[in-house]
Amino acid sequence: MSTPQSDTPRLTVDYHDGRTDQAQTVGIWVSQGMLQLAGHGVLRQIPIHQVQWPEPAEPGVLIIKLPGGGILRTADKVAWDEWLQAQNLTPTKVVKNQQSWRWSLAATLLLLAICAASYVFALPANSG
Asked: Which terminus of the chain faces fewer neighbouring Cβ atoms within 10 Å, N or C?
């Protein structure tokens, strides 16, 4: 595992390994496509594509899910957003579209149009 360079932005988070109840404080950073974790007795590398990132607008404590049942937790949303931006881990376009009220409204209107068209054209005529 490579050691972090002094200019590599790190974020301090709580690490739960999924086997014990106790959280450990670790520093995290991204290097060569891997999420690096380092703390007292903890040294881990996880491929970045296997990490389940929280939604950008999620309120409260942010929970990052790791493969194998581990999680990272942080309550400092400002530091989290700054760290994500420094690591070039911006939200994907899909997540941005999921949180757009315009796309939600368009999807709702499309669903209502499909339901109305199904009612008018797909149901058999009432001959009674």
From this structure: C
